[in-house]
Every structure is written in structure tokens, then in C-alpha cells.
Amino acid sequence: MKTTQRLEKAIEKLYIAFHNDKLHPECCKSCAVGNILDRTGAWKQLSDEHGSVQLNYVGKVHQSFGRRFNGYTPYELLEVEAIFLKTCGYQLPLKRNNIKPNHPQNKDLLFNGLCEVVKFLCKIDNVPNVMDYTKLFEVENNQPKYVLM
Length: 149
Prior knowledge:
Blueprint: H1 5-19, H2 32-36, H3 57-64, H4 74-87, H5 107-124, E1 139-140, E2 143-144
Helix pairs in contact: 1-5, 4-5
């Protein structure tokens, strides 16, 4: 399956973060977007609230100038983070008294969040979801429809 370079790099960074315990939803450098952006937190200046998809003035300026961060627009980055947080069980935007998971670094929770992030990243790159394994189990005439290589 052909993918884009930005998608490949993003998935690789998220994979490494997940397996090296460097993924934490509440930290701007260790969340999904923080890891995609090489464990930096400068992206948080694009919005006034963590988990919001509303660009602030700085975010709107970057968006209108066509600025991209590791291939992604400011709005795409905010969407990625919102998807990740919401799937991990957070009430958005992140605020002190909002609902959040008891164990934010639970591997199952993080895996589910990453699956939704990868699904979204594939969608914006017009690539079939690389996490979709359902085709492996499709049959035709009682035989596997696709051959596993």
C-alpha cells in the first residue's frame, strides 16, 4: 500500500513513543501531536486550550500563510490531538475539573487513541486505513479473498 511520507513519519514516531513509554496525553511534548512534532511543545501556541480545535490568532496566522509542521497544517494538528484525547477518555478541552481517565498511560487506552489518530491521518492523506485488518478475514467462495504476503 502506498502512503505519504508525512504519514509514514508520523506513524513511526507514534510507534516509537508508544513502545518506549513516551506517550502521555496530558503532556504537550509527549502527546500524539507532541510526538509527531519531534517531542516539542511549540504547537500548543496554536490554540488557547489543550484539546480544542479552535485556532487562536497565532494558529490562524500560521494556517492562512500555509505553514506546515512536519507536513501538517495547524488545524490538522489540533484535530489529531482532539481525536487522541477524546478516544483516550478525556472531556475536551482539557481542564482541571473535566472528565479524564484514571490511568492515562494505560497501554490499551493509548492504543485505542493511536488507532483513531492513524485512521484520521490516513483519511486526510486519502490512504486506506493502515490499521484496518478486516480485509485479512474476508472470504470469497470459502477461500481467503486476499493473500497475505
